[in-house]
Design brief:
The complex is a heterodimer of chains A (about 110) and B (about 110). By secondary structure, chain A is mainly β. Helices cover about 0% and strands about 55% of the residues of chain A. Chain B is built from no helices and eleven strands. The chains are: A mainly beta (about 110), B mainly beta (about 110).
């Protein structure tokens, strides 16, 4: 069974540009969540999607947005990139909004903004 | 406001001894708690969970204890092995209502052979 796939694995962008990250959940999983990990800050919650609807949103500026498609794949977009957006972006999937055992994470996309 | 706190950024333990990782939470709506382990360049991996209706859950070498009155949980690893060296994240969520999974900042465990 394939795991959660995130593409690309690594990305270098220039300040002011925009970026789109992709996440393919485990087959059959309908919930996708996104997290930002930076040194010393742990995993900060970005969004949670279920059945193409955003169910929860973290405390991030409007430059961060996301969406989920009918096949449960999800994308997140960051516009007008800032140096502080450099981070590991993690996607996690689960069968539903609340699942015992938690989420299955992908390996992440490492975004570097220069 | 940090709703899930792991106050020890790092911990070193001798192989074969017990590792105890601590976590505190502030949101009284949290009633489901999880521990994840993370190796460099990989996503976090689910380790063990506990519901607020229990105060202990065991899975092999891993035991999680929950003290609801103190809003505190701990992960015990016995015996500790070098392969346990990783960053451990505590996470929590409320199951009634629509709340996301909230993570602590993590504790880096080093098991020394």
């Amino acid at each position: 069974k394939a795991g959660v796939t995130q593409t690309p694995r690594y990305l270098i962008k220039t300040r002011g540009q925009q970026v789109t990250l992709s996440c393919s959940p485990i087959s059959g999983h309908r919930s996708v969540s996104w997290y930002q990990q930076t040194p010393g800050q742990g995993l900060q919650f970005l969004f949670e999607y279920f059945s193409e609807t955003q169910r929860n949103k973290g405390n991030f500026p409007g430059r961060f947005s996301g969406r989920q498609f009918s096949n449960s794949r999800s994308e997140m977009n960051v516009s007008t990139l800032e140096l502080g957006d450099s981070a590991l972006y993690l996607c996690a999937s689960s069968t539903g909004l609340f699942t015992l055992g938690g989420y299955t994470f992908g390996s992440g996309t490492r975004l570097t903004v220069v | 406001d940090q709703q899930v706190k792991q106050n020890s950024p790092s911990l070193s333990v001798q192989e074969g001894r017990i590792s105890i990782l601590n976590c505190d939470y502030t949101n009284s709506m949290f009633d489901y708690f999880l521990w994840y382990k993370k190796y460099p360049a990989e996503g976090p991996t689910f380790l063990i969970s506990i519901s607020s209706i229990k105060d202990k859950n065991e899975d092999g070498r891993f035991t999680v204890f929950l003290n609801k009155s103190a809003k505190h949980l701990s992960l015990h690893i016995v015996p500790s092995q070098p392969g346990d060296s990783a960053v451990y994240f505590c996470a929590a969520r409320g199951t009634s209502g629509n709340t996301p999974l909230v993570f602590g900042k993590g504790t880096r465990l080093s098991v020394i052979a």
